[in-house]
Amino acid sequence: MATAQIAVIFPNKICTEQQSLILVKRLLAVAVSCITYLRGIFPECAYGTRYLDDLCVKILREDKNCPGSTQLVKWYVDFIAFIILL
């Protein structure tokens, strides 16, 4: 993935509240996903693969075969929705 694409995923400059919210969503998804992946909490099939430059990042996703991953994704989506309301 090119450096310009990384800048789109994690921009260097945040100018608006909306851009800030998008960055927080992405950082939360990466953080939760990395922790659960490295601890082996969910099976491999519960993760999608994204690339940032040469770095492979596993992102937790909803998977009908893994209700725990679906529940965790729902929780952090709901958490972000709650933050928006504050």
TrEMBL record:
Location in or out of the cell: Chromosome; Nucleus
Task: Report which superkingdom the organism of origin falls in.
Answer: Eukaryota
- Please state the protein's primary subcellular location: nucleus
* Coiled coil ranges: none
Domain named HORMA: residues: 18-86
Q: Which UniProt keywords apply?
A: Chromosome, Meiosis, Nucleus
Q: Share an example GO biological-process annotation for this protein.
A: meiotic cell cycle
Q: Which Pfam families match?
A: HORMA
Keyword Nucleus attributed: yes
Q: Name one GO cellular component term.
A: nucleus
Q: What is this protein called?
A: HORMA domain-containing protein
Which source organism? Gopherus evgoodei
Q: Which taxonomic lineage does the organism of this UniProt entry have?
A: Eukaryota, Metazoa, Chordata, Craniata, Vertebrata
